[in-house]
C-alpha cells in the first residue's frame, strides 16, 4: 500500500501531515472548551442509558481518539447521544437483572454489534443513501436540531430541569416551571452573563476565547461565593480509565442484542451522516459516506470493548467545537486527553461548574446552526424545495430526528416523481437574429419554420410521463395547421426510455404517419438509440430518422441553410459555408 493510499484510509494521518501551525491555537482552545461539554454530557447520557456515569466518559474518550485517526470529517464530534440512550436502556436493562457489571457488558456488546453492522454496510457500499439528503433537507435538519437543542437547554439556564420526551413537552414544562417559581436567581445570573458574553464576542471579537472565559469565570464565581448548594452543578468526576468490561457474556446475549444493534446502527448512521455532510458543506468540504459509516462503526466498537456503549455524531458538541474555532480532528484528541487528565489529576474540578453555564454554551453553539435566510431564499426561488426544508425542520423538531429525516426524504421522492411525471416541455421556434431554436413560451415573437413543428421534452421518457409527449406534439401540430409535413423531436434530455414509453413513441409515430407527417429524432443520445434497437425498433426508426442537432434536421428538411443572423448584431446575416454550423442544442 502506497503512503497516499494509507493516508486515504486514515484521514487523521493525512491531516497531521498537512497540519498548519496557525491551526494549533484554535484547535487547542476548541478542545479545551469542548471538554466542558464532554464531561457532563457523557455522564448524563450514561445515566439515561441505565449505566454507571463513568461509562459515559469511556464512551466519550475512546470514540474521539479512534475517530480522530480514521474519521473522514474534520469537525465531527462523536459521543453518547440522547437519541440512543432510551434504546440502549430498553435493550440492556431487562437482561441485566439489576447487575451494573452485566449492564455494562451488555452495553459493550451492543456497541460492538452496532459497529460491526455499520462496517458491513460500508463494505456493501450502502452509504449512497446519504445522496438522498439534499441541501433543503440538510438546512431544515440543522434548523430543527438547533430549535430542539435550544428549547431543551432553556430550563437549565433558568436553574431547573425537566424530564422531556418532545419539543412540545419541554416547552410546556418550561412554562410550567416558570409559573411555579422553580427558577434559580443564581443560575439565571450566571447563565445569562455567560450567554451575553459569548453572543457579544461572537458578533464583534470572534478570536477572543469567550467560551473558555465563560466556563472558567463561572467556576471561579461558584467556588468563591460557595454556591455549590445554591444552583445545579456538574459535580465531581468518577474515577477510573477505559478498560475491558465484557465479562460474563454468553452466545444467547449476542442473539438478543442483534435486533437492537441494527436499529441503533440505522439511527446512528442517519443522524451522523446528515450532521457530517451538513458541517462539511458549511466548510466547502465533502465526506465519503461509506468511509464515514465505517469510521463511526469502528469508533463505537472500540468504545464497547473498553467499557463504553454505542455512540454517534453529537448535534450539540459538534457545533460547539466549530463555534470555538476548531479546525481539525485535533480538537477531539485534546478533548479526550483533557477528560482523562481531569479523571486522573483533578476529578473534583467540575464540582464548581454550573449547569447554567453549560446550557449557555450549548445554546450559543446551537444558534450557529440556524440558517433562516437560506430557507427564505429557497421559498423565493423554488417553493417545493423551500417546503421540503420546512418539512425536515418540522419533522425533526416535532416528531424526532430520524423520523424527520425520513419524512423529508419521502417528500423529496414525491417531489422528484412529480417533476419527472410532469416535466417541462415546449415547442421550439425560430427567433430572428438568434442562433438555434428557442422556447416558444419564452419567445412569443418567434415563428415556426414553414411545414415544420419542433418539440422538446426535458426528461427521461417513462410510463408516467410518456402520454404527455403525445399530447404536446398533437397540440403543436394542430396549431401549426394541415400543411405540417415534419415533426422534429429534440430528444437531448431523454436519457432513457422504458417499455411503456416505447409503446407511446410507436403510437405517436403511427398517429403522425396517418396524417402524412414524418417524425424525426434530433440529439438523441447513443445509449437511448441502443435501447430502441433492443426493443426492436431498428426497422421503424432507421438511421435516416436521427440527426445530431435540431439545426441539422431543419437544414435537411428545408434543403436550405439558415442565414437570418450574423456574428454581429449590426451586421447583416450571411449564408453559411461548407463545414460551418450554427445549430447546437436549443437554448432554454
Automatic annotation (TrEMBL):
Residues 566-588 are annotated as: Disordered. Pfam families: STAS, Sulfate_transp. Keywords: Membrane, Transmembrane, Transmembrane helix. The keyword Transmembrane helix applies. Its main location: membrane. SUPFAM superfamilies: SpoIIaa-like. One of its GO terms (biological process) is transmembrane transport. The chain crosses the membrane at residues 23-43, 55-70, 103-128, 140-162, 182-201, 208-227, 257-280, 329-346, 358-379, 391-417. This is SulP family inorganic anion transporter. The lineage of its organism: Bacteria, Bacillati, Actinomycetota, Acidimicrobiia, Acidimicrobiales.
Amino acid at each position: 500500500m502506497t503512503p497516499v493510499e494509507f493516508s486515504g484510509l486514515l484521514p487523521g494521518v493525512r491531516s497531521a501531515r498537512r497540519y498548519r501551525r496557525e491551526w494549533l491555537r484554535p484547535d487547542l482552545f476548541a478542545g479545551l472548551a469542548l471538554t466542558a461539554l464532554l464531561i457532563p454530557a457523557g455522564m448524563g447520557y450514561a445515566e439515561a442509558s441505565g449505566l454507571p456515569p463513568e461509562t459515559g466518559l469511556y464512551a466519550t474518550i475512546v470514540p474521539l481518539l479512534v475517530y480522530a485517526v480514521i474519521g473522514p470529517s474534520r469537525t465531527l464530534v462523536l459521543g453518547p447521544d440522547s437519541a440512543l440512550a432510551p434504546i440502549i436502556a430498553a435493550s440492556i436493562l431487562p437482561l441485566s437483572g439489576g447487575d451494573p457489571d452485566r449492564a455494562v457488558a451488555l452495553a459493550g456488546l451492543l456497541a460492538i454489534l452496532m459497529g460491526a453492522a455499520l462496517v458491513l454496510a460500508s463494505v456493501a457500499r450502502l452509504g449512497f443513501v446519504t445522496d438522498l439528503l439534499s441541501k433543503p433537507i440538510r438546512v431544515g435538519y440543522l434548523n430543527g436540531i438547533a430549535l430542539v437543542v435550544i428549547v431543551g437547554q432553556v430550563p437549565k439556564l433558568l436553574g431547573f430541569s425537566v424530564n422531556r420526551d418532545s419539543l412540545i413537552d419541554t416547552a410546556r414544562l418550561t412554562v410550567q416551571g416558570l409559573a411555579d417559581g422553580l427558577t434559580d436567581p443564581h443560575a439565571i445570573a450566571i447563565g445569562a452573563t455567560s450567554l451575553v458574553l459569548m453572543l457579544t464576542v461572537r458578533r464583534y471579537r470572534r478570536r477572543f476565547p469567550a467560551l473558555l472565559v465563560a466556563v472558567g469565570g463561572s467556576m471561579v464565581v461558584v467556588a468563591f461565593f460557595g454556591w455549590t448548594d445554591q444552583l445545579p452543578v456538574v459535580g465531581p468526576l468518577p474515577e477510573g480509565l477505559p478498560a475491558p468490561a465484557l465479562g460474563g457474556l454468553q452466545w444467547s446475549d449476542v442473539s438478543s442484542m442483534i435486533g437492537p444493534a441494527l436499529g441503533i446502527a440505522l439511527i446512528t448512521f442517519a443522524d451522523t451522516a446528515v450532521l457530517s455532510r451538513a458541517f462539511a458543506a458549511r466548510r466547502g468540504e465533502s465526506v465519503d459516506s461509506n468511509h464515514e459509516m465505517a469510521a463511526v462503526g469502528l469508533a463505537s466498537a472500540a468504545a464497547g470493548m473498553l467499557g463504553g456503549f454505542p455512540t454517534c455524531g453529537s448535534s450539540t458538541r459538534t457545533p460547539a467545537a466549530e463555534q470555538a474555532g476548531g479546525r481539525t480532528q485535533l480538537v477531539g484528541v485534546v478533548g479526550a486527553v483533557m477528560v482523562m487528565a481531569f479523571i486522573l489529576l483533578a476529578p473534583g474540578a467540575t464540582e464548581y461548574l454550573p449547569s447554567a453555564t453549560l446550557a449557555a454554551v450549548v445554546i450559543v453553539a446551537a444558534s450557529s446552526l440556524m440558517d433562516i435566510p437560506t430557507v427564505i431564499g429557497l421559498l423565493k426561488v423554488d417553493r417545493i424545495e423551500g417546503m421540503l426544508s420546512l418539512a425536515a425542520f418540522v419533522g425533526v423538531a416535532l416528531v424526532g430526528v430520524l423520523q424527520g429525516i425520513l419524512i423529508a426524504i419521502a417528500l423529496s421522492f414525491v417531489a422528484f416523481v412529480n417533476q419527472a411525471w410532469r416535466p417541462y416541455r415546449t415547442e421550439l421556434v425560430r427567433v430572428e437574429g438568434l442562433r438555434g431554436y428557442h422556447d416558444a413560451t419564452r419567445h412569443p415573437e418567434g415563428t415556426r419554420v414553414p411545414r415544420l413543428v419542433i418539440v422538446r421534452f426535458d426528461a427521461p421518457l417513462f410510463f408516467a410521463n410518456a402520454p404527455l409527449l403525445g399530447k404536446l406534439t398533437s397540440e403543436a401540430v394542430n396549431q401549426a395547421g394541415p400543411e405540417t409535413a415534419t415533426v422534429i423531436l429534440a430528444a437531448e434530455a431523454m436519457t432513457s426510455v422504458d417499455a411503456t414509453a416505447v409503446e407511446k413513441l410507436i403510437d405517436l409515430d403511427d398517429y403522425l404517419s396517418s396524417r402524412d407527417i414524418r417524425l424525426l429524432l434530433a440529439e438523441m443520445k447513443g445509449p437511448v438509440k441502443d435501447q430502441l434497437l433492443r426493443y426492436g425498433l431498428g426497422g421503424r426508426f432507421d438511421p435516416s430518422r436521427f440527426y445530431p442537432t435540431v439545426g441539422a434536421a431543419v437544414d435537411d428538411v428545408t434543403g436550405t441553410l439558415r442565414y437570418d443572423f450574423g456574428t454581429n448584431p449590426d451586421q447583416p446575416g450571411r449564408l453559411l459555408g461548407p463545414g460551418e454550423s450554427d445549430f447546437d442544442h436549443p437554448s432554454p
